[in-house]
Amino acid sequence: MKVLVATQKPFAAVAVKGIKDILEAAGHEVTVFEKYAEQSDLVAAVADAEAMIIRSDKVTAEVIAAAPKLKIVVRAGAGYDNVDLAAASARGVVVMNTPGQNSNAVAELAIAMMIFMARTQFTPATGSEVQGKRLGVQAYGNVGRLVGAKARALGMEVSALDPFLSDEQIIAGGADPVHSVEELYACSDYLSIHIPALPATIKSIGYDLITRMPKGATLVNTARKEVIDEDGLMRALEERPDLKYVTDVMPDNYAALQEKFGLRVFATPKKMGAQTSEANVNAGLAAARQIVDYFATGNVRFQVNK
Predict the structure, then answer these.
(1) CA distance readout (Å), 131 to 33, 120, 180, 243
(2) Which domain holds residue 206?
(3) How confident is the model at residue 229 (pLDDT cuts 50, 70, 90)?
(4) Residue of 267, 233, 231, 232 whose CA lies nearest to 249
(5) pLDDT in the model for residue 79
(6) CATH code at 204?
(7) Which residues lie closer than 8 Å to 120 by C-beta, 6 or more apart?
């Protein structure tokens, strides 16, 4: 099978070598397509592809239409909103992610962001400590549980909300269960967001939830910018000068937020959650193994467009 590794933002060289070794050992032909300039370049590159490995690359309906032989796309990472699932399903293309491979990298970043904001972005101003504060975790999956564990190691108390887990599962994961998003925000000195961008979650976090947070609270977003109602965030920060927002996904209105709120707001220049050498390699190799397994056995364990 012809496998296209299409990465506008390339994998590390060691990851590319590992991906090729895994796929070629299974008899597949690998083409590495990196640092392309335009989306149209990707459309042109997929003509013969039977499988694809991507990162944040956009597999649109146009890309899928241009790839008549395509059978599987694997997103090296947890999120998959950069793939048109409806178009893939209509063509019978399997779409997978690689859950858990970037989890520790994202969790470490979330904790680092909390401390960064607690210490006033490392300026000389007096900051605060995270020990003794309560962390709320919105979605207690792979990343959320790791964030909770690291927070407990720092002496924080942890609450979690996840509609797919029972109270017993959340307790077993070391957190106190809460039963509504309103309750979670109201009890959290720090709130770490780990929900996906879905129709039900897009712009779901706005003024009403943010202003429920306790005095001096910080909202931490390493998930997706789309889950934030940016107008509502702006209004909340205007009315509550004690609140802070830190994010790994730069808001569209970031310049205005910075101008108005200064050190109360921070966004990384690009999405940094999975930007560690370890996560880079882990996700790439997992994607390659999933493609090999799919063609060898039909395994669709991590399919996201069922």
Answers:
(1) 46, 16, 25, 18
(2) 103-267
(3) very high
(4) 267
(5) 82
(6) 3.40.50.720
(7) 126, 127, 263
Question: What's the half-sphere exposure (Cβ side, CA atoms, 13 Å) at 5?
Answer: 28
Structural tokens at position 124? 């000389």
DSSP H helix total and E strand total for the chain: 12, 12
In the block, residue with structure tokens 């390699």: 281
CA distance 39 to 154: 44
**Which of 82, 64, 74, 140 lies closest to 107 in space, CA to CA?**
140
CB-based contacts of 38-43 (< 8 A; 24+ apart in sequence): 42/6, 42/8
Domain check: are 140 and 244 in the same one? yes
Residue 140: exposed, middle, or buried by beta-carbon count in 10 A (0-12, 13-18, 19+)?
buried
Mean pLDDT score across all residues of the chain: 96
Ordered strands of the 72-75 beta sheet: 29-34, 2-7, 51-54, 72-75, 94-97
Report how far residue 142's alpha carbon sits from residue 136's, in angstroms, rounded to the nearest whole number.
15
Place of tokens 């797919």: 164
> Locate tokens 């590992």: which residue?
18
The answer to whether residue 306 is domain-embedded is no
Rounded-to-integer distance, Cα 80 and Cα 196, Å: 9
- The tens digit of pLDDT for each residue in 185-197 reads 999 999 999 998 8
